[in-house]
């Protein structure tokens, strides 16, 4: 896979994590990106290794990956301008609907 595709995928993964307040499982992320769960774990490791504050929360038998609320602005600033606008659009659209995600 080309480096460009991997880079685009990791930015898309950040967008997915930023768009959801309660986190996503690796399986959910994999389905959204049409990749394997193993690829998701590799990409998460890469993002963590460059200092992005991604964390896992165990709920029942599932592990949910997320970005803490206090770190969301910092991570959003890491995104290219087009993905930033998608993040802010979703933030406004879903304000007050955290219980739905």
TrEMBL record:
Domain Helix-turn-helix type, residue spans: 9-59
Matching Pfam families = HTH_11
Q: What is the name of the protein in this document?
A: Putative DNA binding, helix-turn-helix domain containing protein
């Amino acid at each position: 896979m080309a480096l460009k595709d991997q880079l685009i995928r990791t930015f898309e993964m950040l967008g997915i994590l930023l768009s959801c307040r309660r986190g996503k499982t690796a399986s959910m992320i994999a389905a959204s990106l049409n990749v394997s769960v193993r690829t998701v774990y590799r990409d998460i490791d890469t993002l963590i290794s460059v200092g992005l504050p991604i964390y896992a929360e165990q709920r029942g038998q599932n592990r949910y990956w997320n970005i803490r609320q206090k770190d969301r602005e910092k991570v959003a600033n890491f995104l290219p301008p087009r993905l930033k606008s998608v993040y802010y659009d979703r933030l406004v659209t879903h304000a007050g609907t955290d219980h739905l995600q």
